[in-house]
Write a structure and sequence with these properties.
Layout (H helix, E strand, L loop, with lengths): L1 H22 L18 H25 E2 L4 E2 L12 H10 L4 H12 L10 H13 L3 H17 L38 H9 L2 E3 L7 E3 L9 E7 L4 E7 L3 E7 L3 E5 L2 E5 L4 E5 L3
Parallel strand pairs: 4-8
Antiparallel strand pairs: 1-2, 3-4, 5-6, 6-7, 7-10, 8-9
Helix pairs in contact: 1-2, 3-4, 3-5, 5-6
Length: 281
């Protein structure tokens, strides 16, 4: 699934660069590359088409051999015949777009909401699970896991997030990993996904250059009694800041304009100006 997604991404990047080359001719500033074929060379378009074809063909084979209609999910091993089902495989099917809309609904019911499928124990892969759930609109479930799972680490005295967390394991054994005594990282960057999940789905920030503005902000205010945060926007040092006390939301941006959306209504966010929204939670 990851290989299929990688080929698809390479095709999209190549097509994008070809279009950029047409609009903005490339000039190399390095004498190391005195000769460089234009990206508009038909060879590049052929390479992009080949990657797209390989991605599609592999996705079709994954569907043919690994999708189980009986289980309503993707299995982990075709050769073994054991039809083992894991959350990880099916989450990747959601994340990479391998699963269609019908399969997504079945995966949600038969895997993500099925307690008999073994739970994920690493914060690293919890990110993919929660991102998939958030994409399906299951924000209540995502927030519950953030509070229960990452909050569980905090309840154990964590000051940075751990490489792995199993709430069933206590004492010094909770610091072991893969049979290595005290081998667990207790300051693991890949475990810090709440930073992204809260910013993207609960503060509701997404970039929207195609819509004529730098960003769109759709905060899910029902999840916050109070909130104060500043998030980066764009590649040139822009940012957007939010403050709410449960009755009023104040938004300020620096360097880039945006749109604030709440309950189907919109307000423009102008750089350097405060945008205020009174609301009832």
């Amino acid at each position: 699934m990851l290989l299929s997604a990688a080929w698809k991404t390479m095709a999209e990047l190549t097509e994008y660069l070809i279009q950029e080359q047409k609009e903005r001719p490339f000039v190399s500033a390095s004498s190391m590359y005195p000769v460089r074929r234009e990206l508009s060379d038909p060879e590049y378009a052929a390479v992009a088409a080949a990657w797209k074809r390989k991605s599609t063909e592999l996705a079709e084979k994954i569907d043919q051999y690994f999708w189980s209609e009986d289980a309503g999910a993707y299995i982990d091993s075709f050769i073994s015949g054991r039809c083992h089902i894991s959350r990880q495989t099916n989450i990747l099917a959601l994340r990479t777009g391998i699963a269609d809309d019908r399969q997504k609904k079945l995966i949600f019911a038969n895997v993500l909401k099925n307690d008999s499928v073994p739970a994920i124990k690493t914060p690293y892969f919890q990110f993919y699970a929660l991102d998939a759930l958030a994409g399906l609109g299951e924000l209540d479930s995502v927030m519950h896991t953030l509070k229960d799972y990452w909050g569980g680490m905090l309840d154990r005295g964590a000051v940075t997030f751990w490489e792995e967390f199993d709430p069933e394991i206590t004492g010094t054994a909770q610091y072991d990993m893969y049979g290595d005594r005290f081998g667990k990282s207790l300051c693991h960057a890949w475990a810090a996904s709440p930073v992204y999940l809260i910013a993207r789905y609960f503060v509701g920030l997404r970039f929207a250059e195609a819509e004529g503005t730098g960003f769109i902000l759709e905060p899910q205010l029902r999840y916050f009694g109070s909130l104060e945060c500043t998030l980066p926007v764009g590649m040139k040092g822009g940012s957007v800041s939010l403050h709410t006390d449960g009755r009023r939301l104040t938004v300020c941006s620096e360097g880039v304009s945006g749109i604030l959306r709440i309950g189907g209504e919109e307000k423009m966010i102008i750089p350097g100006q405060k945008t205020v929204w009174n609301f009832c939670v």
